[in-house]
Amino acid sequence: MDPLICSAKGCRAPAAWQLRWNNPKLHTPERRKTWLACPDHLSSLSAFLDARGFLRETVPIDDRDRLEQ
């Protein structure tokens, strides 16, 4: 099983968080896209999505998420 990797450009660190988001101009309200974040990039990725009004929720990755990938 491949590790879940942070979505930040150039980062290869293991992800610890899921940033669930959607663009209301493109997606239905219930649709969620997911970016993954390591602890070092959680703040910057969250801020990027939140500034655009896209961030819906931030949840930790657990073992079940790793198995589903």
Summary?
The chain is an alpha+beta fold and 69 residues long.
Description of the structure:
The protein is α+β, with helices and mostly antiparallel strands and 69 residues long. The longest helix has 10 residues, at 42-51. It has 2 helices and 3 strands; from the N terminus they run ββαβα. The chain has a 3-stranded antiparallel beta sheet with strand order 2-1-3, covered by helices on one side. The chain has helices at residues 42-51, 63-68, and strands spanning 17-21, 33-37, 55-60. The protein is 23% helix and 23% strand.
Order of helices and strands: EEHEH
Largest sheet: 3 strands, antiparallel
What is the CA–CA distance across the termini? 8 Å
Helix content: 10-25%
Record the SSE blueprint:
Elements: E1 17-21, E2 33-37, H1 42-51, E3 55-60, H2 63-68
Antiparallel strand pairs: 1-2, 1-3
